[in-house]
Design goal:
By secondary structure, the protein is an all-beta fold. The chain has one helix and 16 strands. Strand 3 and strand 4 form a beta hairpin.
């Protein structure tokens, strides 16, 4: 049986990261652009000192205490946010809304039932007066902003009609933590002669909820991904890892 032996193997990794619910046959979907993907191992080390002359260590016991994973996810797509914010996600279909009822506050925002309104028409309630965009209100992705300099007074009853595109809704912190199977499809770019692949399969990953998300920042916003790599006791057999395996050429 041939054995692959390669002494020269410096490492500089790049690659794709995929995930799905652990134990399912769902599609392994890409997380997108992931930075600084790392794994860490901690041991529980117990030592027995040698109390005889000269001292030193008489005996030592080492056991794996934990395996963890960390990364930064730069694509704020629906699936990533759902996993990292433990949120249920749904899709709102594109459509048309007629005569949505609101009460105006001059100099304030009216949030509509759907985001990114288009073809907006604002009238009094009951209808009779049609207000003018740019004079009485502004259309914004988050709703309509009532201009204090316009003709819409405080507590005016309004009817708003508009169309909206399809969009996603993530209800944050509504779901229990999910276990994921995570796959790293990497390429060792430091191996210039071969650019060898490296595939790592993490069997059971338990993500923590995202600790911090910069909503306004000078640079690109990343969502922190930290997780415990738990034991997968369905993996059995001599020499078979319960945590993860690395396949490389």
């Amino acid at each position: 049986m041939a054995t692959t032996t390669k002494t020269f193997r410096p490492y500089k990794g790049r690659g794709n990261v995929y995930a799905r619910k652990a134990g399912t046959t769902d599609a392994l979907v890409e997380l997108g652009n992931v930075g600084e993907l790392s794994i860490a191992h901690e041991e529980d080390v117990q030592t027995l000192g040698d109390n005889r002359p000269g001292g030193g260590t008489y005996a030592e016991s080492r056991q794996i205490q934990s395996v963890s994973m960390s990364a930064t996810v730069y694509d704020w797509n629906r699936q990533n946010l759902s996993w990292l914010l433990r949120g249920a996600n749904t899709t709102v279909a594109s459509g048309t809304v007629t005569d949505e009822s609101h009460t105006a506050k001059a100099g304030g925002l009216l949030m509509l039932a759907a985001i990114e309104p288009d073809s907006v028409v604002v009238t009094s309630d009951p209808a009779g007066t049609t207000y003018v965009e740019g004079t009485d209100y502004e259309v914004r992705p988050e709703g309509i902003f009532i201009l204090a300099s316009g003709n819409i007074a405080d507590d005016t009853a309004l009817l708003v009609s508009y169309s909206n595109p399809e969009y996603d809704v993530i209800q944050a912190l509504t779901e229990s933590a999910q276990e994921l199977e995570v796959v790293f499809g990497g390429m060792n770019e430091a191996d210039a002669a071969d650019a060898t692949p490296q595939v790592i399969e993490f069997f059971k990953v338990q993500p923590a909820v995202a600790g911090e998300m910069a909503l306004i920042a000078d640079g690109f916003g990343g969502v922190p991904f930290s997780a415990t790599v738990a034991k997968d006791n369905s993996k059995t057999g001599s020499g078979i890892s319960k945590y993860y395996k690395i396949s490389q050429r």
